[in-house]
Amino acid sequence: MAQDSVCLSDVKAAYERIRDRVNRTPCLLCERLSTELDCELYFKAENLQHIGAFKARGALNAVLQLSEEQASRGVVTHSSGNHAAALARAAKIRGIPAHIVMPHNSAKTKVEAVRSIGFEPQFCETDTPSREAAAARVQEETGASLVHPFDDPRIIAGQGTVALEVLEQVPELEQVIAPVGGGGLMSGTLVTLSEARPEIEVYGAEPAWADDAYRSLKSGKIEPPERYDTVADGLRTSLGNLTFPIIQSKLREMLLVAEEQILLAQRKIVETAKLVVEPSAAVPLGALIGHPGRFRGRRVVVILSGGNLDFGSCQLGK
Amino acid sequence: MAQDSVCLSDVKAAYERIRDRVNRTPCLLCERLSTELDCELYFKAENLQHIGAFKARGALNAVLQLSEEQASRGVVTHSSGNHAAALARAAKIRGIPAHIVMPHNSAKTKVEAVRSIGFEPQFCETDTPSREAAAARVQEETGASLVHPFDDPRIIAGQGTVALEVLEQVPELEQVIAPVGGGGLMSGTLVTLSEARPEIEVYGAEPAWADDAYRSLKSGKIEPPERYDTVADGLRTSLGNLTFPIIQSKLREMLLVAEEQILLAQRKIVETAKLVVEPSAAVPLGALIGHPGRFRGRRVVVILSGGNLDFGSCQLGK
User: Fold this and answer.
1) From the centroid of its chain, how far is CA A6?
2) pLDDT digit string, tens, across residues A86-104
3) Measured distance CA(B28)–CA(B18) in Å, rounded
4) Could you say which of A50, A215, A228, A310 has the lowest number of CB atoms within 10 Å?
5) In the A/B pair of chains, how many CB contacts fall below 8 A?
6) Helix (H, G, I), strand (E, B) or coil at A225
7) How far is CA A121 from CA A97, A127, A244, B41, in A?
8) Chain A: closest CA distance from residue B233 (Å)
9) What integer pLDDT is reported at residue B312 of this predicted model?
10) What single string gives the DSSP state of each residue in A78-105?
11) Closest CA to A79 of A103, A58, A51, A49
């Protein structure tokens, strides 16, 4: 598909489709971190979205566009992360079957999230071929539609609605920083802002230990990750055939973030903004902290992508 | 002062005064806990208010009403809690001096909050006479205006703006649960709702270990706390001369919450709603969990009062 396969009108149509069933998440000025970091800093709190992540938007936009005949056969995906719960929720809203294939080592909290919506996941081995084979088998048996977590124009348009809300919430916005994993959120953000307000500078952020997007932009082709051990588990994926060209043509700059900076940023968000965020969601603030010169004195929105932590070992203070 | 000294028009006037400088915090439907608790549950997230608590509203409303002459001499309060930072922030916005007297054993995070706004607290002994004497001394020396944390009509009117927003955010609301410490938030909530929408049932929640409001309603006079060791440190205060009669005449019922239920509720909010809340803010959800019959099948808003935790020992999961 060509890089212009998703445009602002698709994002606006997605918003009309989903807005009654997604939270209009707040975009909150953080006075304390603004002072500390010498900029005007807003957090777009998609951790407060249903299922705890922006993924609820794209999945719902995809499921609501299935024909009656497609819908009756259900949807299928393989995911160890937030897309699993997002697709389950979308299927439940439409009242159709959802086949959620999860690697057997998925975080307990993500498995419970799918179950709490009312679907029992199917478990498979952890390697990509096994996951794809398991999903393909379900597809063959049931005729269910596969909904990819990011490389799908309906998903990209749905994720673009985050930026649509930001434009309404923050007047005279100058800069946006969003995390880059598979690139669904980032390409939706770019599609929206490049058409609606091209003067806004959009920065991508990813862990230095998952710098595949950074390298892909350098080499001009999709590069695979070289390691899979960043704490930001949502950003370990490589870009897709649809998301890469959008990012390549529209992104201002990719910023890399060290592991310790991710954890520092996470702590600052929890302590100061009172928002529970997963490490992946803290990467953009880590980028701001690591590259202060680009953001000094500017009005900047940091997109907090999600808040799904494994709380097994969590000890809150008093 | 008579119990009708604060009315809905005061709350509306307060809102016009402060709305440009407070967050319109979100009121978020929590689908997962709604299913689990068999009601339609919304969280009014005042933990996302500036300084991390609803107290920012009342303090700003009070400070903005000082005459020029009063304002020039500054404000003073004694507080170990969120009112300290709230008054400091309000003074900074108006550009006047703030004298914040804090017991020397105040939580480090609360002291740092005042400092981060630009004021150095003055420390005193922890007993009430010492605190009052220290504040009185400052008042005498400087001519600063004392701003009480809750027993002040300007404070009550300011806290009432939380309910004003809730009315706009949740159509056909049936029930509200709010915590009761000194009663500022509760009496503001009652003033607003009893006049604007008297059919809405308002419940108060307090720890069983800080049941002074419950006992006060029984005896018909303000009862002091009998112990000071509840984990909900913001609710250890007794009611005031202004807040008690409002609560006495307008509240539907006080519900008591056991300590373990407070901590369970806190964990549910953090894990499910992705909001950082202090134990005091979790008491209303604890009340809902402990008295499910009153709320089954109803549309209920739980006010989350604040998110200021001492994170010294905090370990977030991955």
Assistant:
1) 17
2) 999 999 999 999 999 999 9
3) 22
4) A228
5) 110
6) coil
7) 12, 17, 30, 27
8) 9
9) 61
10) E-SSHHHHHHHHHHHHHT--EEEEEETT
11) A103
**What CA–CA distance (Å, rounded) separates A243 from A240?**
5
Q: Is A218 helix (H, G, I), strand (E, B) or coil?
A: helix
Q: What are phi and psi of A29, to 5 degrees?
A: -65, 125
CA-based nearest distance B8→chain A, Å: 27
- CATH class label, A3-53+153-313: alpha beta
Q: Which residue of A49, A268, A274 is the best one to mutate when testing the B interface, meaning the one whose CB has the most B CBs within 10 A?
A: A274
Dihedral of alpha carbons B189, B194, B200, B202, sign: positive
- Give the angle subtended at the CA of A81 by the CAs of A307 and B286, to the nearest 5°: 40
> For B143, phi and psi rounded to 5 degrees?
75, 15
Written as one string, the DSSP assignment of B49-83 is SGGGBTHHHHHHHHHTTS-HHHHHT-EEEE-SSHH
Asked if A37 and A289 touch (Cβ cutoff 8 Å), the reply is: yes
| A248 touches A217 (CB < 8 A) | yes
As to burial, measured by CB atoms within 10 angstroms (0-12 exposed, 13-18 middle, 19+ buried), residue B139 is: middle
| Residue A123, CA atoms < 13 Å, CB-side half-sphere | 8
Task: Write out the two tokens for A106.
Answer: 């998925």
Specify whether the CB–CB gap between A181 and A82 falls below 8 A.
Answer: no
B23 contacts A23? CB cut-off 8 A: no
What's the whole-model pTM score? 0.94
Q: According to CATH, where is 3.40.50.1100 located in chain A?
A: 3-53+153-313, 56-146
Q: Which of B221, B217, B216, B149 is nearest to B185 (CA)?
A: B149
Candidates B26, B47, B318; nearest CB to A309: B318
Tokens (6 digits) for A158: 């749905």
Q: Does domain B3-53+153-310 have CATH number 3.40.50.1820?
A: no
CATH 3.40.50.1100 domain position(s) in chain B: 3-53+153-310, 56-146
Token pair 């993924």 is at which residue? A55
Is the domain defined by A56-146 classed in CATH 3.40.50.720?
A: no
Which parts of chain B sit beneath pLDDT 70?
Answer: 1-4, 312-318
Contact B309 A316 (CB under 8 A): yes
Kindly calculate the radius of gyration of chain B based on its CA atoms and give it in whole angstroms: 18
**Per residue in A36-93, pLDDT tens?**
999 999 999 999 999 999 999 999 999 999 999 999 999 999 988 899 999 999 999 9
The set of catalytic residues of B is 55, 305
